[in-house]
Each structure stands twice: as C-alpha cells, then as structure tokens.
Amino acid sequence: xxxxxxxxxxxxxxxxxxxxxxxxxxxxxxxxxxxxxxxxxxxxxxxxxxxxxxxxxxxxxxxxxxxxxxxxxxxxxxxxxxxxxxxxxxxxxxxxxxxxxxxxxxxxxxxxxxxxxxxxxxxxxxxxxxxxxxxxxxxxxxxxxxxxxxxxxxxxxxxxxxxxxxxxxxxxxxxxxxxxxxxxxxxxxxxxxxxxxxxxxxxxxxxxxxxxxxxxxxxxxxxxxxxxxxxxxxxxxxxxxxxxxxxxxxxxxxxxxxxxxxxxxxxxxxxxxxxxxxxxxxxxxxxxxxxxxxxxxxxxxxxxxxxxxxxxxxxxxxxxxxxxxxxxxxxxxxxxxxxxxxxxxxxxxxxxxxxxxxxxxxxxxxxxxxxxxxxxxxxxxxxxxxxxxxxxxxxxxxxxxxxxxxxxxxxxxxxxxxxxxxxxxxxxxxxxxxxxxxxxxxxxxxxxxxxxxxxxxxxxxxxxxxxxxxxxxxxxxxxxxxxxxxxxx
Amino acid sequence: xxxxxxxxxxxxxxxxxxxxxxxxxxxxxxxxxxxxxxxxxxxxxxxxxxxxxxxxxxxxxxxxxxxxxxxxxxxxxxxxxxxxxxxxxxxxxxxxxxxxxxxxxxxxxxxxxxxxxxxxxxxxxxxxxxxxxxxxxxxxxxxxxxxxxxxxxxxxxxxxxxxxxxxxxxxxxxxxxxxxxxxxxxxxxxxxxxxxxxxxxxxxxxxxxxxxxxxxxxxxxxxxxxxxxxxxxxxxxxxxxxxxxxxxxxxxxxxxxxxxxxxxxxxxxxxxxxxxxxxxxxxxxxxxxxxxxxxxxxxxxxxxxxxxxxxxxxxxxxxxxxxxxxxxxxxxxxxxxxxxxxxxxxxxxxxxxxxxxxxxxxxxxxxxxxxxxxxxxxxxxxxxxxxxxxxxxxxxxxxxxxxxxxxxxxxxxxxxxxxxxxxxxxxxxxxxxxxxxxxxxxxxxxxxxxxxxxxxxxxxxxxxxxxxxxxxxxxxxxxxxxxxxxxxxxxxxxxxx
Lengths: 489, 497
Prior knowledge:
The structure holds 2 protein chains of 2 kinds. Chain A is built from 16 helices and 11 strands. Chain A is an alpha/beta fold. Among the domains of chain A are: 2-258, Amidase signature (AS) enzymes, CATH 3.90.1300.10; 303-379, no CATH class. An 11-stranded mixed β-sheet of chain A has the order 1-3-2-4-6-5-10-11-9-7-8, with helices on both faces. In chain B, a hairpin with a 2-residue loop joins strand 8 and strand 9. In chain B, helix 5 (306-317) packs across helix 6 (321-328) and helix 7 (331-342) packs across helix 8 (350-371). Chain B starts with a strand and ends with a helix. The A-B interface holds A 80-81, 87, 89, 94, 97, 99-101, 103, 198-203, 205-207, 233-237, 315-316, 318-319, 321-325, 327-329, 338, 342, 362, 365-367, 370, 374 and B 40, 43-52, 79, 81, 83, 85, 88-91, 149, 276, 278-280, 283-286.
C-alpha cells in the first residue's frame, strides 16, 4: 500500500531503502491510471518525466543525500507554472500553453528532489469552489463521485484523498485550499500572504493569492511549507519569516495547556448544516480537553468578507487576465481584425464564471464606481484585518468551521453563483486579512461526508498553528479515514 | 481678431538604465534583433511578477529635482488598463494618483534663431505639473496583412513629464524641449534622442482670442520625431487654426499626426469617448517610501545645469550669451572649460582668461574634434587636457609665442598630448622679441620693397599687411607680431624723407 504513505512516511521508507523512488512513483502512476478516469483529478499526467525524476532521486539517495522530499511523488495544481509541462489553469485559453520556467515554489521542490506526477484539475483560473468550472471537466469527490471535491484546488484535494500522490500543491485565494481539504478529508494549509513566493503562479487576485499544500496530515503540511517558504527576489511581496521548525512540530506533545483558542460567534450561523456545527463544536471541545483555554471572541466584520472579496478579487482578476489576448501565447481565434480577434479569443477561451468575474471586476474599477466599490471595499478589508489583529491580542489561534456544508452534488449550485459563493464565507475573512489558516478533518455527516475544522493563526504564526493542529491530529483519527473508492474502480 | 495659442507638452523620456523597469532584461536594446531582450516579466507571461528597478527611481528623482519638482515621500504603482498588442500584460504599470515628482518648473531662454543668432532672449518659466515613472511598451511594425511585435522595448523605464498649459509659441515649445533634453543629458539619465525615440513629445494645443481666459478646442499632435518637427508642427497648426477661426470656422477635437514629407498635420483619429483606464493600485509591488537620506543622496548627484552655468559665465566672466550657450551645450565641454579656468595661474584676470579659453574651445578645439570625428561629449577622452590649453594661452599672453605658432602647437598637443611648453622648447618655437634682431629684418624688408613702402605711405594700408607677412616669413613666423608692427611703422615713416 505504498500509495497511502504520507510524505514523512515515504521518506522513512526511502531513507531505509525499503523501497525506491521509482517503485513508489510506479505505484502512484498505476493508481492514477486506475482511478483518474473516474475522479478526473489530473489534467495532465507525466509518467516519463516522473520516472526520470524518480531515477534521479534514487541516484541522489544512493549517494547518501537525505532531504525532506527526495524521491517523494507529489502533484501540482495546474495554476503553477512547470517548466516544459503544459500549464492550463483549467482554461481552454491556455490548453496548449507550456511554460519555459518553473514557479519558484515548484523550482524549490524540484531542487529538493520531489517527483512530479502531473498537473491537477482546478476551477478555471482558480475561480470557484467546486472544480466544476474547469475546461477539462469536473473533478469528483472520492467520498461520493456524484459530489464535488470543493475548489478551486479540487483536483489537489481529490488526489490526496484518493492517494493519487503523497501530497499536492494548491493555491488559496479565498479558501481554495481549505474548503476542498475539508470536503475531501485531507489537511490543507493556507500560508500567510507572502510567506511562499507567487512567482510563476498564474495570478487570480494578486493581493490574496497564496501557494500552499494539501496533505495527508499536519506534519506533511509543515514539511511542504518548510520546502517552499522564503523571500524570493522575483516576488516583491514575498517575505522571509523564521523558518518552520518541522522537528519541533513532530515532537509536540498532545497537550494544549496555556494555548488560548478563540471561538468566534460569527462563524456559527443560522443555515449551516447541523452536522458541521456539531462536528466543529466537538472538535473545539476536544481542544479544551487537551488543555486549551477557550475564549469566546468577536470578529464583527465577518459578514462583510463575502461582498468585499467579490469586489477586490474580481477587480484584480480583471487586470490579471487581460494578458490572455491571443497575441503572445495560448489560444488565438483568427479573425478579420484585432478587436474581433480579442473578442473571439476571449469569448471562446474563457468559461462563464471567469467572464462573470472579469465583468464584476471591470465594473468595480470603472470611472464613477471606483470609489463606491473598490475604495470602499479596501476600507472594509482593513476593518476585517483589524478584527483579526484585535482577536490575536487575546488568543493564539481561532477555531471555526471551514465550510458551512459538506460536499454538495455536482451541478447543484452551478446555476446559482450566490449559493456557490456562500461555500467560502468562513474562509474569505482570513484570506482578506492575509493571515494563516489550516483545515483539518474533524468528522463526518450522516452520509459519511467529511467535515473540516479551521484553525486560524496570526500573520506568520504557522509554527504555533501547526503545533496546535498536530496536537489535535495526534489525538484524533478522522484524517486517517479513507474513502472506499469502490465506485471508481 | 488676434488669437493666442495655449500649449501643453507631454514628454516621454526613456531612462538609460542598464536593466528594464521591472525585470533584469537589458534596457540597451537599440539596434538589437527583435525579441532578444525579453523575459517572462516583460513579455507578460502568466505568473510573471514585476520587481522595481531602484536605479530607474533614482534617475526619475534626479530629473524631478532638476525640474524643481516636489518629490513624493510615499507613492505607489498603479495599473493602467487598455488593450493593444504592444502592451503584453493588457495593463501598463504606471503612476496616477501620486506621481513621483510634481509641482515643478523650468526656466528657458526663448530665442527666435530662424534668421541667425539673437543675443537677446526672453526668459520664460514653464510649470511642470507632474513627472511619473512607468514602463514602455513594445513596438509594432505593420507589413501588408501582418503586424509584427517586438517586445525589446517593453518594460524599459519611461518618465512621463507633463507641463501646465504655459507655453505660448512654437519657439517656446522648442526652447522647453531643448532645455529638457539638455537636462537629461547633463544628468546622464537619458540620451534624450528624439530620432531614436528616447524622447517623445506630444503637444496639445488650442487657440483662443487674445485676452480670453477660457480654453479653446484642443488638438493633440503625435508622430514628432525631432525638435524641429515639434516646432514646425506647432507653427503649422497655429497658422491653420488661425485661418479657420478668422474665416468663422470651428476647430475639431482630433488627434493629428505630423507628415514630415508634406510638412503638414493630418488627422489620425477623430474625437473618441474618453478612455477609462480603470487605474487601481498595483498589488504586485509594495508602495515606495522615499527617505530623507535617499533623497539627499540623490540630490547630491545633480550637477549645475546649463542655464545656471550660462548665467554664471556671463555674470562672472562677462562672456556673451552666444559664448555661454555654446560652452554649455554639452556638459562635458562646460566641465572642460571650467577645468581649464581652474588651472589658470592668474585668478585676478579670469574674465580675460575665460574669453580666451572660450575662443580656443569654439574655434581650434571644435575644429580639430570635427576633423577627427570626435563627438563633443567625448572631450575628456582626447589627448589635449584643459591645463594644457591654459598653458598655451599663458605662453601667448607672456609673449613667448604668437597666436599663429600657438595654433600649430595646439594641433600638436591635440595629436600627441605633449605639454605646449615642451613642444615650444623642443622645436625652438619661442617668438623673437629681441629688438635689434627684429629691426635688422625689418630694415632688410623695407629696403627690398621700396615700391610697397611707397604704397603704404600713400595710404594703401592693405600693403602694410604684405610687408608684415614678409617679416614673419623671414623669421619663420616666430617674430613677435606686436613688435614687428611697431618697428615696421617706424621704418616706413623713416623712409618718407
């Protein structure tokens, strides 16, 4: 059962030469061949490249090298540039785009000797909460193939949940790592904005985009962050923080004495699925059992997260996506003149959700509306940020649900953008504040669908956040539960 | 009715940095193969991010300071969105709300030199509204049914300088642009070459009845590839619009292009609805904080500029406006001139020395540099050094050599770099000032040319020159001309009896 291995377990085997990277890679490739047709987690599978990387890793292992990801097969969300491997962003407009260089996060993993299995499905340009808005078809939730895996990193969450890789890279702009992690019963860490370089990440909303990982446990999340973090001369918004101490997290005793856990009333709203509320409240009680001190807190501007996000993110996206014009790369629909070429290329190249957001953003930035929408949204964003700053004066982490519901059915919300947007109400505020947050499995609803607990930490507070999450995971076994996947085989 | 023109200029200046505004590509792209100075950032590839070029910011601050602008202590970048194939990201990173430099002014001397040099100039002050930093676009070439894009220029730092509508004539616009060009060259931040596109100017202009304080209908003129084209296009437009207005017609709000071959403006675009660029702060770049220390360090790098030097040369040395303008046209020449003066051993007679140096520079130095194809800004790389010119001038002043010899010596210094004094000594070029020796030669000449002596006595002064020439010839040019002149007069007078 090589495919069930976590990153650190895989490294143990490789270090002890109990298996080779090539064997491990082959095991994953076989499983991908068997399961991907039903799950559609991968857009692009790269067996030759993967085996070549595995052979190189084996040579490095044989030479005595021992780095945290050496020889470990992982997969990459298709919004991150990979040298020589097409990178689609889930869009028709980039269906044949092959980058000439690696995203910084990818380059760091490559240098450490990780093996890349392929590129993972996602909502087009990471815009969505279900992975249904992909030009390459929806990804299915391994726990129930009729349901969505969440999004936009739905290919990543499904691949990790179904053991189609040891770990997966994702991106989180408004919840795109945490929400799919919750819906697929995996661990998903959204890093503090700026902790991991965005260079090479195909931008959705530049002031919100973060690169992170979806993993099988918290320790792997720490390992992946340690591998990718750090200031990058190619990203002016990236920052150097004290590096994550993975060993310290691994050594954490499952005791939370002295840890103050804030419980925000605003995150338990009417209309949320009762099973979700129950599971999250149980998880919080569990933290108290471990010794944490629970503190009721208020994040009064939480309800404004959604409207603020849907002004700022589309505004930035409307400019970020302007470069896809058919002139330089990607799709071009030849037309009689320049303007029709633009119209046809973008008209046919972008899906409906992307177009909706470009229009929202263009409108919000237009003369006469700019002050009322964009400027006002920025002001409210500051208030949301202040909510967290004030809360973190009193608590160390905040505990909350990730998503108000468990996985919904494919097609259930595609005609109702508002319902779709509501899937992110609990994840948007942390994104707007730029702080770090993690989703860890904390239970299942009546239908056996996974539920996630969200732990939120202050900016650059990943070390403490991961320690608390690890303490929780060491004393629970939700994250070890696997979907049956009988339907998929 | 009398009409008055109101002109505002928008000028783009490419900054001469080693790398581009937001990436590490070389910005020195002139003449390079298309699309060879490019990278993911300046091509607008998915996932590429900009990083600020500090040097470009400093260059922009220098221009701002030279234009007496205030420098923003806090500013940020903004995205200006519009569609065009030469704009790879679909937006230009620019500055809108808080330009790096604002509220400045520049003084210029306006001269009408169309009919020769005018010593008199009118000094005008033109206010600078703003100067902000942005990135240049690529370049389109159209051929038949195809258009080609070259992104070598994409991302080159560009400074946009906007004046208030203070300019009132084509000559003023010309004077402003020349001054601006000279400033960026003095600062060493741009070649300012309009022909190469390193400086691009788009005037906007309107006419109104003289004395009116409202603005008329504005036109914009593009495609101006030289200073002269700017002046000619504006002059043409003033004339054209005056004619239309006098005939009771109306001016259309259009964008015009200058047709250099036909020497006229042609309509490029009809009036279009105002563009909505949807500016918003660039989230990929942190805001820019400019500290007092940084600003002062940049300020310290600004040299004395041309106009200030002209005023000083005229005030302190009594030079003519013409000399002052000539000497300051290139900063290297002005520096060279000042260095020569610094080595003068007679600080009390600086005006005389300055005039002498100015004359030498504008005649012999410029002539030899022209003959040897040395551009004026390379004056520091030629063999002759400022101190050597001063030495030469002092040799003439002391009477050691005469002017003719000095010119020969200067040419030799120009070619060998040897000191004038050494050359004079080695070649025995010192002039003959010994009266008995000269008198002997003069008397020989007078007795050999009785006819010419008679002609001088009859008032034919030109012939005196001939006799002078004979004496110089006999002394191989070394005779002290002043003495010869005096002795020859005496000898001729003496032969009257």
